[in-house]
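User: I've been trying to design a sequence by hand for this structure and keep getting stuck. Would you show me what you'd pick, starting by listing the structure so we're on the same page?

Assistant: Good idea, let's start from the same input. This is the structure you sent:
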């Protein structure tokens, strides 16, 4: 069950990664839209394919921005939900470790340094914290 608890707590990280990927794609599409230039044929008539390509790029940007907003809504909801679970963990070290890892996305080395424990001890605390979260989730 600990694996399922880690997956549950890790939803914020994965959603954040989706957000980052969409932001990168939007940036690339905006750069592409700016680079797209009007072309004229031999008679000086504007090329219609330019308008269509630019319109398609803009539509794609708008669609991606909407899914990005949906992902941001998801991460706000998930953060609140996971925070509510973590705040019910009784041991303050467990709570802090879980917040550092799953809400703030810190690395194990950073957590170890911030808490003043060895990485090995952080691993022990993490396993214990996950067990406590598991019992809290089972209550809900």
């Amino acid at each position: 069950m600990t694996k399922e608890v880690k997956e549950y707590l890790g939803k914020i990280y994965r959603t954040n990664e989706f957000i980052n990927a969409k932001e990168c794609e939007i940036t690339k599409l905006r750069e592409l839209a700016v680079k797209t230039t009007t072309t004229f044929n031999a008679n000086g008539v504007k090329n219609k394919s330019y308008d269509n390509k630019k319109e398609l790029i803009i539509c794609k940007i708008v669609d991606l921005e909407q899914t990005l907003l949906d992902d941001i809504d998801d991460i706000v909801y998930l953060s609140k939900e996971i925070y509510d679970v973590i705040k019910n963990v009784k041991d303050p070290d467990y709570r802090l470790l879980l917040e550092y890892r799953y809400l703030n996305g810190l690395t194990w080395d950073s957590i170890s340094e911030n808490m003043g424990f060895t990485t090995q001890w952080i691993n022990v605390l993490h396993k214990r914290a996950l067990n406590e979260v598991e019992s809290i989730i089972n209550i809900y």
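That's my pick for every position. To get oriented when you compare it with your attempt: The mean pLDDT is 88. The chain is about 80% helix and 0% strand.
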